[in-house]
Every structure is written in structure tokens, then in C-alpha cells.
Write a structure and sequence with these properties.
With 208 residues, this protein is α+β, with helices and mostly antiparallel strands. It folds into two domains: 88 residues, Glutaredoxin (3-Layer(aba) Sandwich); 105 residues, Glutathione S-transferase Yfyf (Class Pi), Chain A, domain 2. Helix content is 53%, strand content 10%. The protein is built from seven helices and four strands. A four-stranded mixed sheet has the order 2-1-3-4, covered by helices on one side. Helix 1 runs antiparallel to helix 5. The longest helix is centred in the middle third of the chain and has 31 residues. This is glutathione transferase. One of its GO terms (molecular function) is peroxidase activity. InterPro entries: Glutathione-S-Trfase_C-like (IPR010987), Glutathione-S-Trfase_C_sf (IPR036282), Glutathione_S-Trfase (IPR040079), Glutathione_S-Trfase_N (IPR004045), Thioredoxin-like_sf (IPR036249).
């Protein structure tokens, strides 16, 4: 059965399109645009799920939300492709980074977004939030010392999960030449043909 991806422009859902390309599973995209002034998702997404958040997928008559949960579901559907490595450390790292992307990376990045929109009112919090992001980047740079991907030497769904927050960091949160391992990792994933195909199918994406 073809998976339907409810894809909001410039959002976490771009990862799901890329994942589906890597897995070789059939899918179709229903694309939604943000409000031009508020950048909020359109109300039409709430007709699919009451929370109206992207990504969400429809598969086999069920609506599935939450990016990591969707990733785990699709990996299982593809017979474990791009899933956890066989070695214990790789499996642990896979689970860690599958959830680190949303649990640890996205809260301070969202904080930066809010602080930026507050203008002068947000200045007292800016330094603290900036430091939170810097601490994460410094540590992640050391994690990629000596291995090509976050769970080992092969691409996994954990890397796909990590793509959005690190792309956002490169665009607006200081991921620059000070972090050569992270930059090399970003170049590596951006050079993948499946990644480029996902961009073509998903439409304009501000973070690639």
C-alpha cells in the first residue's frame, strides 16, 4: 500500500520523504504551505489529525504522527533497512540519535526562533539559548570523530533524523567551519542521490 506523506514546507517532514526514498517504499506527497505572515501550518492539516502537525503519514488506514515514530514504523515496514546496526554499540547509538534529534536538539532551536521573534524582549534569553546550542554542537563534533555516521560507518534512520536540526543549525545557529566533522557529514548526506530526489519531490526547502 502506498504511504501518504502530509508534508509541510520547510519542516521536519522533509526527512520522511528522504527516508522513503532511501527505503524504496512507494509513497505520495500531499504538500501544505505555511501561512505567509505567521508561518503556521494550515488548518487543513487538522482534518487529518486533531493536532494538525507535520509530519504525519497515512498508511494502511492509520494516521501516524511524530517523526521518530514514523521513522521506526517505516524502517520496520522495509524489513529493517536503515535500522539499528547489529553491534551493541551501534544499536545503542542508533536509538540514542533517533530520539536525540527531537528530544535534545529541537527545544533550544525552537527557543532561538522564539527569542528572535521577540526582538528586544528576547535579548535577555539569547545568550543562554545560544550557549545551549553551542554546547550541543561542540559535543556532536566529537561524536563524529572517527566515524562517518552517527551510529557507525553506514547511513541509518538516525542520520536522517539528525539532518533537520543540524541543517537548521547551519542556516541560523552557528554550525560553521569550527565544526568540520559536522560539515563533512552534512555534505555527505546532501550529495546522496536519494536526498536530492527527495528535495525535488518535496518542493522548496530552506535548509538544504
Amino acid at each position: 500500500m502506498t504511504t501518504i506523506v502530509h508534508h509541510l514546507e520547510n519542516s521536519r517532514s522533509q526527512r520522511i520523504i528522504w527516508l522513503l526514498e532511501e527505503l524504496g517504499l512507494p509513497y505520495e506527497i500531499k504538500r501544505y504551505e505555511r501561512h505567509p505572515k505567521t508561518s503556521k501550518a494550515p488548518a487543513s492539516l487538522k482534518a487529518i489529525h486533531p493536532l494538525g502537525k507535520s509530519p504525519m503519514i497515512e498508511d494502511d488506514g492509520e494516521v501516524i504522527i511524530e517523526t521518530a515514530a514514523i521513522a521506526e514504523y517505516l524502517v520496520a515496514k522495509a524489513g529493517g533497512k536503515l535500522g539499528a546496526p547489529n553491534d551493541p554499540k551501534g544499536a545503542r547509538l542508533y536509538t540514542q540519535y533517533l530520539h536525540f534529534a527531537e528530544g535534545s536538539m529541537m527545544p533550544p532551536l525552537y527557543g532561538l526562533l522564539v527569542v528572535g521573534r521577540l526582538g528586544l524582549l528576547g535579548l535577555p534569553a539569547r545568550k543562554t539559548v545560544d550557549q545551549m546550542v553551542t554546547d550541543l554542537l561542540v559535543w556532536l563534533e566529537t561524536e563524529l570523530q572517527g566515524r562517518s555516521y552517527f551510529a557507525g560507518d553506514e547511513l541509518t534512520a538516525a542520520d536522517i533524523m539528525m539532518s533537520f536540526p543540524l541543517e537548521a543549525c547551519q542556516t541560523r545557529a552557528g554550525l560553521d567551519a569550527r565544526y568540520p566533522n559536522l560539515q563533512a557529514w552534512l555534505k555527505c548526506i546532501h550529495d546522496r542521490s536519494q536526498y536530492r530526489t527527495a528535495l525535488e519531490k518535496g518542493g522548496p526547502y530552506a535548509y538544504a
